[in-house]
Design goal:
alpha/beta, Rossmann fold, 2 domains, globular
């Protein structure tokens, strides 16, 4: 079996070694980096399947590493590890290209699950998605297997989390999908932190779907969202 190659950038050495050992016990091949510059160089040299980045690192912070990666790579999943959880930090994280955001302190088991979820939406663990599944949203074609939305010759790539949210909205098209349902299905709980993350993803999806002005994600205040066209 080919191991998933994971790049872990964490400057707290004690935590870094604990997390690395736990991830290796779960079958991952871990590339450990102590700062942002090293992480970026290792990313270029070793081609990892997923990046797990601390935000506050010497030489180059996690936001900058993610931004540099996303200049040429829109696919490889990125998870941030951080003690910062203000809404502005969450927004900054996703705007720099992150797919997920895990607040310290965290259980390694939760990190493992989040890694598997992100990879299952890309190219490594696709067994839960039937081949060829796609959705027509007005004039836009959404392919959750490839994480893309397309209108004519124009195509946009979604993050794994954006793709999963849109897939659930499509399955419940023309019906209200509750925020609680979305949060518990995708994040596992409906905490304030996760709710703020959901708001960011919904905003980004609306931008992607503007290609067809008839397609809307409507906010039903106090209930949830409805995808209509």
């Amino acid at each position: 079996m080919i191991k998933i190659r994971l790049l872990l950038a964490e400057d707290e050495l004690a935590l870094a070694h604990i997390v690395r050992e736990s991830l290796e016990e779960n079958g991952f091949e871990v590339i450990l980096c102590a700062n942002g510059e090293q992480a970026l160089q290792k990313y270029k040299n070793d081609n990892p399947d997923i990046l797990v980045l601390d935000i506050m690192m010497p030489k180059m912070d996690g936001f900058e590493v993610a931004h540099r990666v996303r200049e040429t790579d829109k696919i490889t999943p990125i998870i941030f590890l951080t003690a910062r959880s203000q809404p502005k930090d969450v927004v900054a994280g996703f705007e720099s290209g992150a797919n997920d955001y895990l607040k310290k302190p965290f259980a390694v088991e939760e990190l493992v699950i989040r890694i598997k979820v992100l990879l299952s939406d890309n190219r490594l663990l696709r067994t839960s998605k039937p081949p060829g599944e796609s959705h027509q949203i007005g004039s836009i074609t959404f392919n959750p297997l490839k994480n893309t939305v397309q209108q004519g010759v124009n195509q946009w790539t979604l993050t794994s989390r954006e793709s999963e949210i849109l897939r659930l909205l499509c399955k419940n098209q023309q019906q209200i999908l509750s925020r609680k349902n979305l949060l518990e299905t995708i994040w596992g709980d409906d905490s304030f932190f996760n709710a703020r993350s959901l708001d960011v993803f919904i905003s980004k999806l609306r931008t992607h779907l503007k290609a067809d002005p008839n397609v809307q994600i409507i906010t039903v205040r106090g209930h949830g969202y409805k995808l209509v066209w």
